[in-house]
């Protein structure tokens, strides 16, 4: 027998599953009030600026989609039933869903409130092939929680996610390794998570509408359109992507650090400076198309005493607002220890590609607002330079001149 083991191990198992609840918030409301069944139900704000957070399938057949303004939804379905969102309730049920997944599969990576990736290759001896495990999970969620879900399976997370979208509602689709490229070829490029409307338009300009057509584009042309993600997306189109769980967790960090010639003795001034650093780090994240899960504050006094404190966020982010909140909270906890500050730094770790951490619109409306605002600020900054813009509480001499640093060792 060769060193490569028996033939059993060489069969490629499409064991990366993507489980996604169907119209999650709407399904919960219909479960809790069966008189809503079969009706065009949406969850969301009913006010003038309300947005659809989730739409039942009867609402979807009328053209209603999540993230659509409620006024538009009302126009499409005058008999629309609007249920106000119950975030805490959905979070509790989400925890129940995840508990079911974790009771069957050891490797679960929760992606958002209602979806997760699972690596079931280690669960086969106990529970069978990926098809059987997907059916088991969906049946348990149905029996124990009364909710519909869909599962996609593949040799890669990207394809599994596309497959689960295909299987909806209340279905499952496991794509064998050898069929991957063929499965993807006829699909629109927008089916790939992370290819947004801008990239779609750019691809269409070079004549690419379907995933299969990506294979025919010369690498340079594709890189011009898709940037650093081009090789990864080509591998996907060729059916060669094999990325499993936690792929985007890169062991590197990104941040900014500054030493001052004169010690800072005013706590409010320190707070102002680290706030600006947090904004700068968030800008770097957005420029890279990454989000971070952990933020680290480093402080050093003139005698060399160094304090490093970190905070893990419940959702990965590229929002300056979120990073500021955490950095300031860390500072408020530690400020009594250091009367004089010589060096301060803000750093983020556990970076992920922002395309892989979707947050449902409804619960994120506030952060969406911030993201829009911050994107606008990024554009203004790149046009006018970093000193041209800062938020209210950081107004003041913008002469900080913090050094951008990248630390591949993640220290
Ligand atoms: Mg869902």
TrEMBL record:
Residue ranges annotated for the UmuC domain, each copy included: 16-196
PROSITE patterns (UniProt xref): UMUC (PS50173)
Family matches, as Pfam families: IMS, IMS_C
GO cellular component: cytosol
Subcellular location(s) per record: Cytoplasm
Key words of the record: Cytoplasm, DNA damage, DNA repair, DNA replication, DNA-binding, DNA-directed DNA polymerase, Magnesium, Metal-binding, Mutator protein, Nucleotidyltransferase, Transferase
Residues where Mg(2+) binds: 20, 114
Keyword Lipid biosynthesis: no
Residue ranges of the region described as Disordered: 382-411
Cofactor: Mg(2+)
Enzyme Commission number(s) of this protein: 2.7.7.7
Name of this chain's protein: DNA polymerase IV
Provenance organism: Brachybacterium alimentarium
């Amino acid at each position: 027998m060769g060193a490569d083991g028996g033939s059993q191990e060489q069969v490629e198992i499409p064991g990366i599953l993507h489980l996604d609840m169907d119209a999650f918030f709407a399904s919960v409301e219909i479960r809790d009030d069966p008189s809503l069944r079969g009706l065009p139900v949406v969850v969301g704000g009913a006010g003038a600026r309300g947005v659809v957070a989730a739409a039942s399938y009867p609402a979807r057949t009328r053209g209603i989609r999540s993230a659509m303004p409620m006024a538009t939804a009302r126009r499409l379905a005058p008999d629309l039933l609007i249920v106000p969102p119950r975030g805490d309730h959905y979070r509790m049920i989400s925890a129940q869903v995840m508990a079911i997944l974790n009771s069957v599969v050891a490797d679960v990576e929760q992606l958002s409130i209602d979806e997760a990736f699972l690596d079931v290759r280690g669960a086969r001896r106990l529970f069978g092939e990926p098809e059987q495990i997907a059916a088991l999970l969906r049946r348990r969620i149905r029996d124990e929680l009364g909710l519909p879900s869909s599962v996609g399976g593949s040799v890669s997370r990207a394809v599994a996610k596309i497959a689960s979208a295909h299987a909806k509602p209340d279905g499952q689709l496991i794509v064998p390794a050898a069929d991957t490229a063929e499965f993807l070829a006829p699909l629109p490029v927008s089916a790939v998570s992370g290819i947004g409307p801008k990239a779609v338009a750019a691809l269409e300009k070079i004549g690419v509408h379907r995933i299969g057509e990506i294979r025919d584009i010369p690498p340079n042309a594709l890189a011009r359109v898709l940037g650093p993600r081009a090789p990864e997306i080509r591998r996907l189109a060729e059916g060669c992507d094999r990325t499993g769980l936690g792929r985007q967790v890169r062991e590197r960090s990104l941040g900014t650090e500054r030493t001052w010639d004169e010690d800072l003795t005013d706590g409010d001034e320190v707070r102002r400076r680290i706030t600006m650093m947090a904004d700068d780090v968030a800008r770097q994240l957005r420029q890279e198309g990454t989000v971070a899960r952990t933020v680290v504050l480093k402080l050093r006094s003139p005698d060399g005493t160094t304090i490093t404190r970190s905070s893990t966020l419940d959702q990965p982010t590229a929002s300056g607002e979120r990073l500021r909140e955490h950095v300031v909270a860390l500072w408020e906890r530690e400020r009594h220890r250091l009367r004089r500050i010589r060096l301060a730094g803000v750093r983020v770790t556990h970076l992920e590609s922002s395309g892989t951490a979707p947050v449902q619109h409804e619960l994120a409306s506030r952060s969406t607002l911030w993201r829009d605002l911050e994107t606008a600020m990024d554009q203004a900054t790149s046009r006018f330079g970093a000193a041209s813009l800062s938020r209210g509480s950081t107004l003041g001499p913008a002469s900080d001149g913090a050094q951008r640093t990248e630390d591949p060792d993640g220290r």
